Amino acid sequence: MGKVDFVIITGLSGAGKTQAMKVLEDLQFFCIDNLPPALLPRLVELHVHSQSARQYAIAIDIRVREYFSDLRRSLEWLERSGHSYKIIFLDCSDAVLVKRYSETRRLHPLTKSEGGTQSIFQSIAEERRLLADAREMADVVIDTSELRPMDLRVRINEIFAGPPLHESVFVDLFSFGYKYGAPIDADIVFDVRFIPNPFYVDELRSLTGQDAAVAEYVLQWPATQEFLEKFVDLICELLPNYAREGKGRLTVAIGCTGGQHRSVAIANELANRLEARRIKVRARHRELGWSVS
């Protein structure tokens, strides 16, 4: 679909708008929930003054039904002003919607607005009628009846032709020292104590893996290079699988004895190699107390 300035997410209550907005937020859209359509011109004004390339995702649902009559008029104004937009309408079967409301024990918005006098089926039917025009205007209609949250994530990534799905996963690398305790917040832990320790080299002992001399010492060994190559290949192979399951962050811990030398140098080098593969990554160092992007 290409790059657009504004994405309008609308559709049936319970069809997945919240999940869709989370995906767009991960794609660096500025997300606004339940904005009355009449306020779109004001948002455009802020967008113009900001002089940024920011993209906006706006969720509009039946909770602002008194403003829905403004939607077509606001979108026409948006188009005349030279701003691109796309409308994504999320649909779902009645049976699945009823099941979702039953599982979450939430009331349908129209049921609440009518004082609880409507059945869930009546509320869904009324919502379909009220959203008929919005569905007709939609550029894309997604039926989420058979979609898991991660499937919807994949679908939205495909629609907006963003980076490959695996590139949307953020790899959080951090070094640590086993003598201070193994991490409990890592998805994957690697022990690099098999690499010769710079601590036992007098001129390197007082330095850290941030220093070029220590990094050169750690990276010179064939075992280190073999580990780095296999690690990068493994992570790049796994990321698409993690992405398809909806994982947005993969936390990888690299440990040595004190968290000062080997693990620091290895984490930095891994970050450089993953970045060269177009992977979003950050290296941070628990025992040094700071991070590098």
- Mean pLDDT, all residues: 85
The Rg value, from CA coordinates, equals 25 Å
Number of E strands: 10
N- and C-termini, Cα separation: 30 Å
Flag low-confidence runs.
Answer: none
Roughly how much helix do the residues carry, as a percent range? 40-55%
Label the structural class.
Answer: alpha/beta
Order of helices and strands: EHEHEHEHHHHEHEEHHHEHEE
Largest sheet: 5 strands, parallel
How many helices? The count is 12
**Strand order across the largest sheet:** 2-3-1-4-5
The fraction of residues in strands falls at: 15-25%
What shape does the CA trace take? Answer: elongated
Descriptors:
single chain; 293 residues; alpha/beta; five-stranded parallel beta sheet; five-stranded mixed beta sheet; 12 helices; 10 strands; elongated
Briefly summarize what is shown.
This protein has 293 residues and is of the alpha/beta class.
Q: What would your notes on this structure say?
A:
- The protein is an alpha/beta fold.
- 43% of the residues lie in helices and 18% in strands.
- It contains 12 helices and 10 strands.
- It has a 5-stranded parallel β-sheet, with helices on both faces. A 5-stranded mixed β-sheet has the order 7-8-6-9-10, with helices on one face.
- Helix 2 links the parallel strand 2 and strand 3.
- The chain is elongated, with a radius of gyration of 25 Å.
- The mean pLDDT is 85.
